[in-house]
Structures are given as structure tokens and as C-alpha cells.
Amino acid sequence: MRIDKWLWAARFFKTRALAARACELGRIESNQQPAKPAREVRVGDMLQITSEAGNFQVEVLVLSEIRGPAAVAQTLYRETDESRALRLKAAEERKAMRGSMPAPAGRPSKRDRRRIIKFRGE
After folding, report:
1. Which of 13, 51, 90, 114 fits as disulfide partner to 18, beta carbons 3.0 to 4.6 Å?
2. Is-contact 6 60, C-beta < 8 A?
């Protein structure tokens, strides 16, 4: 089975095209080797997946060409404990950083927009 199709079925990417693009950009590794979209994935392969959701290190448990519900998709792989711990730590750090920055009061006024434009040099 193609790796881009499996990544799509396992719900790591919304479309197969996005999964293929991630492979082409070198964001997917299969057994510590960069994976092209047409690379065959087999049960037992270790995949390193880098996406907007985070970095995942997973073991392939089941092959499926059908994209099903999220509950079914989670049975296709097993994430390593260290990968899960690193991902949760990164999420906590992002949450802590978000708390230190105050949220904007609302939409900028006309005067604020002019200052922003001037600051950007537009």
C-alpha cells in the first residue's frame, strides 16, 4: 500500500495530496529513510511524521485504504510513549506562551490601522 494513501486513511492529513506533498518535502520518514509518496508501507514499519499537528513517531499496525471515522483511524497505528510525551510537552509550552500574551481588545481603529501600515512600511 502507498504511504500517502495510508497517511490519509490514518487521518494525519486531510487530503492525499497534502500527504504526498509532505512526503515530497521530506517530512515523512519510514524506518529512518525519507519516504516518497509511492513508497510501500507494511505492518511493523516505524514512521516519523512531521505535520502542523506536531511530530509523531508511530508504528503501523493495520493497513487500510479506506478513510473511516477518527476512532477507527486511531487503531491503524500505535504512537510511541516518548513521541506522545514530547508532543504533550510542546502543547503545554505553547499554552503557557499563549497565556503570557494578552489578547487584542478588538478590531483596530482607523488610527491603529494607519499605525500598523506605517510600521510595516507599506
Report:
1. 13
2. yes
For the chain, helix (H) and strand (E) counts, in that order, are 5, 5
Where residue 30 falls (left for φ over 0; alpha for ψ -120 to 50; beta otherwise) is beta
Q: How far apart are CA 64 and CA 75, in angstroms?
A: 10
- Report DSSP letters for 6-21, one per residue: HHHHTTSSSSHHHHHH
Q: Which three cell numbers stand for residue 97?
A: 506562551
Scanning 29-109, the segments in alpha helix (DSSP H) are 70-73, 81-100
- Extents of the domains making up the chain: 1-81
Cell 513517531 belongs to which residue?
57
pLDDT in tens, 10-32: 999 999 999 999 999 999 999 99
What CATH code is assigned to 1-81? Answer: 3.10.290.10
What's the pLDDT tens digit per position in 71-117?
A: 999 999 999 999 999 989 988 888 888 777 677 778 889 999 999 99
